[in-house]
Specification:
- The protein is of the alpha/beta class.
- Helix content is 52%, strand content 7%.
- The protein has helices at residues 2-7, 38-41, 54-65, 82-94, 98-101, 113-125, 154-166, 185-188, 201-214, 223-231, 235-249, 256-263, 268-279, 283-295, 300-312, 319-337, 342-358; strands spanning 72-75, 102-105, 142-146, 171-177, 192-195.
- A five-stranded parallel β-sheet has the order 2-3-4-1-5.
- The radius of gyration is 26 Å and the shape is globular.
- Adenosine-5'-diphosphate is lined by residues 39, 42-44, 50-53, 78-84, 235-236, 239.
């Protein structure tokens, strides 16, 4: 908008934008005119739309009635409603003014010590009045949301505690993170903590079915279950997957296979075959097989995840073998996170499995 205003000279007619009817975008159907990601479209607008986090919502609603909101710390797995809850809460507290009363900083912003100090300081210095434009009272403070706070360095976190205290007259903080253990103690002790639970299967399925019916998505039986299995309690992941599948199939109905294809799950026959090849006790065969598997383009992280379940629930392994293999899985997973080579890690893991099957040490 600003760029538009800058370029606008009085007296000249602004050029029509692509959106006007005189200049229609080709292939625009009514439904796809303004494509918004479904995660944003179906983000809860008010607190009562946040599902499954009943305790959190109840406590926050109580503190709404009472103007001294404490500093907040939301933690829990991804896609469980943390960001949505604080946005909905701000909307309920501040009404229409909510945009001017919150400062949102997330991991993509520069969050060194100096930036936090400067941004928060200038934001905290703006006074917040106790009435809304429509005359209704509203709390005289602003909210600073630090999303993904666990990715902040310890130094930046330490700097934050002083800032938090200095700004406490006019500002409340809401820290959001996945791992509370990565937040330093002096910060956790200054906040009320709220744990967000992984969403239950029923909740996920209700929400996905609701979205599917709103968007006229045709799904075959078990598709929603497949989406849920893949998304591991992360509603954002589930909604995104459903939307990708819908984009792929359009008017046709989505099948379980589509979900498997899109989500990059490795077909079980490959996983079972890894075990079979390991049983052969032949390094050459294993090497060839792993090579083929990597040509298929599956990520080693996914293969390892599925192998883990296969090994743990496989009764042909005894506890000792399972524990050795799982330990190796953990090591390889860590190396992958650190940027290790996918092929080498999978080979290393498979060699351990082979050794455990063919030459177990007692
Ligand atoms: N408890 C919930 N109730 C309703 N929708 C949810 C809930 N949790 C997640 N979602 C959906 O998932 C998307 C991502 O949620 P978000 O609040 O950003 O998750 P988080 O911040 O915990 O990672 C939202 O847009 C919303 O559609
Ligand atoms: Mg979030």
């Amino acid at each position: 908008m600003e760029a538009f205003l800058k370029g606008f000279k009085p007296g000249t007619k602004p050029k029509p934008t692509v959106k006007t009817d005189a200049n229609p975008v080709p292939t625009t159907s009514k439904k796809t005119k303004r494509p918004t990601p479904w995660v944003e479209k179906y983000r809860p607008k008010c607190m009562s739309e946040v599902v499954y986090q009943d305790e959190v919502v109840a406590v926050l609603k109580k503190s709404l009635a009472n103007p001294d909101l404490p500093n907040l710390l939301f933690y829990g797995p991804p896609g469980t409603g943390k960001t949505s809850t604080i946005l909905a809460l701000s909307r309920e507290i501040f009404g229409d003014m909510f945009k001017s009363r919150i400062l949102e900083l997330n991991a993509s912003d520069e969050r060194g010590i100096q930036v936090i100090r400067d941004k928060v300081k200038s934001f905290a210095q703006q006074t917040a009045s106790g009435v809304r434009p429509d005359g209704r009272p509203c709390p005289p403070f602003k909210i600073v949301i630090l999303d993904e706070a666990d990715s902040m360095t310890n130094a930046a976190q330490s700097a934050l505690r002083r800032t938090m205290e200095k700004a406490s007259k006019s500002t409340r903080f809401c820290l959001i993170c996945n791992y509370i253990s990565r937040i330093i103690d002096p910060l956790t002790s200054r906040c009320s903590k709220f744990r967000f639970k992984p969403l239950s299967k029923d909740t996920l399925s209700q929400r996905l079915n609701y979205i599917a019916s709103e968007e006229n998505v045709k799904v075959e039986e078990n598709v929603i279950d497949a989406v849920i299995d893949f998304s591991e309690g992360d509603l954002r992941k589930a909604i995104t997957l459903l939307q990708s599948a819908h984009r792929l199939k359009g008017e046709e109905s989505i099948t379980e296979n589509d979900i498997a294809d899109i989500s990059g799950v490795v077909p079980m026959k490959w996983i079972k075959e890894i075990i079979t090849v390991c049983e052969s006790d032949s390094y050459e065969k294993l090497e060839k097989f792993v090579c083929n598997l990597s040509y298929e383009g599956y990520t080693t992280g996914q293969v390892i995840n599925q192998l883990h379940d296969e090994v743990v629930f496989n009764d042909t392994f005894n506890d000792k073998q399972k524990s050795s293999i799982c330990e190796k899985i953990a090591v390889c997973d860590k190396r992958l996170l650190d940027g290790g080579d996918e092929y080498l890690q999978l080979m290393d893991l498979c060699c351990t499995i082979m050794q455990q099957i063919c030459h177990p040490v007692n």
